């Protein structure tokens, strides 16, 4: 059955818009009519492969089993909750928590590689969620950037769209039951054993490793060559990476699943151990002693001549003092800004905020440091202070795209919705094809109960 906008299913879920469609079913944003307020959720419509009684009975049993697994997994803060599941007109429905935010593909931009530090932080985020999944003896089977959502509320990653829901374990062929497993997953992130229908916990580790390599190289998986003899991915020459981290990634994406980390816990441990086994030693250059064996200075040179040289040198030094101080201040501010960026990536927010604050004290017009300060305050849920920082950045540079985005997010959290929309409108004026801005506008319009406007905004995204 094809669902239409406005249609109610399960006696309570009103379809608002379609999110996506694939070979396993269709996903919708819906409104729960039985709860007060504007509670929106995701409804997944799953269609069995056949409509004969035996196939429906088998699908019903599998659906019930997988729904119970999702319900258990949904107790984790970074996995969507399962609110309900039901059958209607021989089709099956899952009702899950709607996660507002953007998927990871918006952060992994082709041609723009991430730093090693940021990539490690990203993989740690993913593996910490996956560790819980693997502890429940569940294989996700479809880890890729589009199934990782950066939650707008707190900036945390949320793992969605478990492949187990898509699994079909039996099919009726020529009147007989034939067991098989559908090759679930996204090409490039799906290892060979999973493509052959035999997924394992380490299949998820392969996918996470490919996310990391894509982040480091700025390349999509299909753009990376493979060794014709071993099947191993060739990527090291396309990234700036230490040997220690590269070895961890290589082990994550081994062609033979037996050579990979067996689960998320072991991969996470290897990641956390990076840098612990070695210490850097900086060799300082030796300083030669001054030459004390030289001859005494001769008095044949005029003392007056030497005095004049000394006076001239003092004048030159005095004239250059302001320039030197300005250079030092500029250098110090830049160092503090980069320190703030690193601390922000590590989620050490208070330390990051202090670094950014020192940077703008040295250089009050340092627009990037004001932006960093805003981002940090936003992460700390200090929305009014974040707004003030973004406004300062915009005052210095009126076309600063990220500052306008940050301003819109801060205003949204402050529930100043009209002003938030105006901020995202400013983003669109600067960059017309900024789809994230349209998504944010649509989300805010839903909060304002302007549903027709929201649908129009989402259509532009």
Concise synopsis of the structure shown:
With 461 residues, the chain is of the alpha+beta class. The chain contains 14 helices and eleven strands.
CATH top level of the largest domain? Mainly Alpha
N-to-C CA distance: 27 Å
Would you tell me the structural class of the helices and strands? alpha+beta
Taking all residues together, what is the mean pLDDT?
Answer: 83
Tally of helical runs: 14
Query: What is the overall shape?
Result: globular
User: What string gives the helices and strands in order?
Assistant: EEEEHEEEHEEEEHHHHHHHHHHHH
Largest sheet: 6 strands, antiparallel
Strand order of the largest sheet: 1-2-3-4-6-5
Number of domains: 3
CATH homologous superfamily designation of the largest domain: Transferase(Phosphotransferase) domain 1
How much beta, percentage-wise? 5-15%
CATH topology of the largest domain: the name is: Transferase(Phosphotransferase), domain 1
């Amino acid at each position: 059955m094809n669902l239409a906008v406005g249609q109610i299913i399960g006696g309570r879920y009103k379809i608002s818009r379609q999110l996506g469609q694939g070979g396993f079913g269709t996903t919708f944003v819906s409104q729960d009519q039985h709860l007060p307020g504007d509670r929106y959720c995701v409804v997944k419509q799953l269609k069995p492969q056949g409509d004969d009684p035996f196939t429906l009975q088998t699908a019903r049993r599998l659906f019930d089993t997988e729904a119970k697994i999702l319900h258990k997994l949904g107790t984790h803060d970074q996995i969507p909750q399962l609110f309900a599941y039901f059958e209607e007109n021989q089709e099956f429905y899952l009702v899950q928590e709607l996660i507002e935010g953007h998927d990871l593909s918006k952060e992994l931009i082709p041609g723009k590689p991430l730093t090693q530090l940021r990539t490690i932080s990203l993989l740690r985020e993913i593996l910490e969620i996956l560790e819980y999944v693997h502890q429940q003896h569940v294989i996700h089977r479809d880890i890729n950037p589009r199934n990782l959502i950066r939650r707008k509320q707190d900036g945390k990653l949320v793992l969605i769209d478990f492949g187990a829901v898509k699994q079909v374990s039996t099919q009726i062929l020529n009147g007989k039951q034939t067991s098989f497993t559908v090759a679930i997953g996204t090409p490039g992130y799906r290892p060979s054993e999973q493509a052959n229908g035999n997924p394992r916990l380490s299949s998820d580790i392969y996918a996470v490793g490919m996310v990391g390599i894509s982040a480091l190289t700025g390349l999509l998986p299909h753009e990376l060559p493979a060794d014709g003899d071993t099947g191993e991915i060739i990527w090291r020459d396309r990234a700036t990476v230490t040997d220690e981290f590269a070895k961890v990634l290589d082990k994550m994406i081994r062609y033979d699943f037996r050579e990979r980390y067996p689960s998320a816990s072991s991969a996470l441990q290897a990641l956390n151990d990076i840098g612990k086994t070695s210490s850097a030693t900086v060799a300082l250059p030796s300083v030669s002693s001054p030459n004390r064996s030289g001859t005494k200075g001769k008095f044949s040179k005029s003392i007056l001549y030497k005095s004049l040289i000394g006076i001239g040198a003092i004048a030159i030094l005095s004239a250059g003092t302001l320039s030197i101080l300005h250079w030092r201040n500029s250098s110090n501010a830049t160092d503090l800004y980069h320190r703030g960026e690193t601390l922000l990536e590590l989620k050490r927010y208070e330390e990051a905020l202090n670094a950014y604050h020192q940077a703008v004290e040295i250089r009050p017009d340092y627009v990037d440091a004001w932006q960093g300060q805003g981002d940090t305050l936003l992460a700390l849920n200090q929305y009014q202070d974040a707004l003030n920082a973004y406004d300062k950045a915009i005052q210095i540079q009126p076309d600063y795209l990220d500052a306008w985005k940050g301003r819109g997010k801060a205003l949204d959290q402050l529930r100043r919705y009209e002003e938030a929309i105006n901020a995202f409108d400013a983003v669109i004026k600067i960059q017309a094809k900024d789809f994230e801005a349209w998504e944010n506008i649509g989300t805010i319009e839903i909060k304002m109960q302007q549903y027709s406007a929201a649908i129009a905004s989402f259509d532009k995204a």
